[in-house]
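Milestone M4 deliverable, item 7.
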Amino acid sequence: MLLPLAGLLVGVLLGLVLQVNVSFEFARYSAVAILAALDSVLGAVRAELDGVYDNRIFISGFVTNAIVAVLLTFIGDRLGLDLYLVALITFGLRIFQNVALIRRHFL
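Output delivered:
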């Protein structure tokens, strides 16, 4: 559980220190990537609390989610459709579900 949280903390701190500016063209890709990362981290925390955390599953899920989300956004850009919204809604739903399960674990 510490590895995903440490990675999230390091990423947030690097983002604040480096003050990276994202251009408008890449804003959708960044939003999808951030939600994919947050979904993976919260999924890892939930898995750790359930006692089934596996680092290989976390890393492969993180990479696979990011690749699929970016490909969906890219294909949507080429077709002139807002397919990135599908990824945002899906990751948003999963984030809320993971947060609810984590909350229930502590209650």
